[in-house]
């Protein structure tokens, strides 16, 4: 069986829009409830799902960025890290860059934006800062 990414991509993009909207809403809610375990878990689940689906479809840039966000959130979910303003800002930027990825995918491009590599490094640095 051959994977038909042309057919699945529009569905992925629509679902990603819903997930990123929920991700953004969760980030706003985390401002006032930074230790809410259910909210943290739900937020991590969103990027986990985005990571898996993007990987399945071969969108490696989206996969890398979602995985880095998931890694940062895992420390928060496990209680080994705390949510700082810096982490929250970085997660917001990840959402913006992921939305940019969706626009480029819709346009047929898999070229990362200029912020991609720097953001990956920053997410990784922040994930390691509490460990």
What does this structure look like?
The protein has 5 helices and no strands. The protein is mostly helical and 131 residues long. The chain has a single domain, classed as Four Helix Bundle (Hemerythrin (Met), subunit A), CATH 1.20.120.160. Helix 1 (5-32) packs antiparallel against helix 2 (37-57), helix 2 runs antiparallel to helix 3 and helix 3 (60-78) runs antiparallel to helix 4 (85-106). It starts with a helix and ends with a helix.
Notable characteristics:
Four Helix Bundle (Hemerythrin (Met), subunit A); mainly alpha
Care to give the gist of this entry?
This protein is 79% helix and 0% strand. The chain is an all-alpha fold.
Helix content: over 70%
CATH topology category name: Four Helix Bundle (Hemerythrin (Met), subunit A)
Strand content: under 5%
Tally of helical segments: 5
Query: Per the principal axes of the C-alpha atoms, what is the gross shape?
Result: globular
Task: Write down how many β-strands occur, each being a DSSP E stretch of 2 or more residues.
Answer: 0
What is the fourth-level CATH superfamily? HPT domain
State the low-pLDDT regions, or none.
Answer: none
| N-end to C-end Cα span | 43 Å
Please state the second-level CATH architecture.
Up-down Bundle
Secondary-structure element order, as H and E? HHHHH
**Sheet having the most strands:** none
CATH class: Mainly Alpha
How many distinct domains? 1
Structural class: mainly alpha
Mean pLDDT: 93
Please state the CA-atom Rg, rounded to the nearest Å: 14 Å
